[in-house]
Write a structure and sequence with these properties.
Number of strands: 6
Strand order of the largest sheet: 2-3-1-4-6-5
CATH superfamily of the largest domain: ACT domain
Number of domains: 2
Structural class: alpha+beta
CATH architecture of the largest domain: 2-Layer Sandwich
CATH class of the largest domain: Alpha Beta
CATH topology of the largest domain: Alpha-Beta Plaits
Radius of gyration: 17 Å
Distance between the termini: 12 Å
Largest sheet: 6 strands, antiparallel
Order of helices and strands: EHEEHEHEEH
Number of helices: 4
Length: 154
C-alpha cells in the first residue's frame, strides 16, 4: 500500500515548449492541430498558469518525429514572432501508476523526494488520478529508475 503498483519508461523523448503564447485557446489549438495533421503524437501536455495575456505550453514527442516537429515550430514562429519555442532532446518519461493514488495523499511528494535524491532537474510533470509522469534527462534514467523501484518495492 504505497500508491504505486507499476513503473514504466518511454525513452528517446523530446520536450517542446512554446513560451509566451497568447492566452487564446485557438492558438494552442492551432499548434496541436498542426502536429496532428503531420501525424505526430504528442504526450505530457502541460500549460502554465497564465501571466497577463500569455502562457507557456509544453509537451513531448518521440525523437523520431523531431525533424517534422522542427518544421512546424519554424512555421509557427514565423506566424507568431513573440512566441519563444524551446526544444530539448535526449529525455525519457518515467511513469508511475497506481489505482491507490486516487485516495492516497503524498504519493507525488514521495516520488519527487526520491527523484530529488538523484537529480535536481525534472523537466516536466503531468498527472492524472492514477498516474504521475516525470520527464528527466536520459542520462539520469538508470539511477532514478533504480531508486524509484527500490522505494516502491517494484
Amino acid at each position: 500500500m504505497n500508491g504505486v503498483s507499476k513503473i514504466s519508461v518511454t525513452e528517446d523523448v523530446c520536450l517542446i515548449s512554446f513560451n509566451n503564447i497568447p492566452r487564446d485557446l485557438s492558438v494552442i489549438s492551432q499548434i496541436m492541430t498542426e502536429f496532428a495533421v503531420q501525424d505526430i503524437n504528442i504526450d505530457m501536455i502541460s500549460q502554465s498558469a497564465p501571466i497577463g495575456e500569455s502562457a507557456n505550453v509544453s509537451f513531448t514527442v518521440q525523437s523520431e518525429d523531431l525533424v517534422r516537429a522542427l518544421a512546424i515550430i519554424q512555421r509557427f514562429r514565423e506566424q507568431h514572432p513573440s512566441v519563444r519555442p524551446i526544444v530539448s532532446s535526449g529525455n525519457c518519461k518515467v511513469q508511475l501508476y497506481g489505482e491507490e493514488m486516487r485516495s492516497m495523499p503524498g504519493v507525488a511528494a514521495r516520488a519527487f523526494s526520491v527523484v530529488s535524491s538523484i537529480t535536481n532537474e525534472i523537466m516536466l510533470i503531468t498527472t492524472s488520478e492514477v498516474d504521475i509522469s516525470i520527464l528527466i534527462a536520459q542520462h539520469e534514467l538508470s539511477s532514478v529508475l533504480e531508486a524509484l523501484k527500490q522505494h516502491y518495492g517494484i
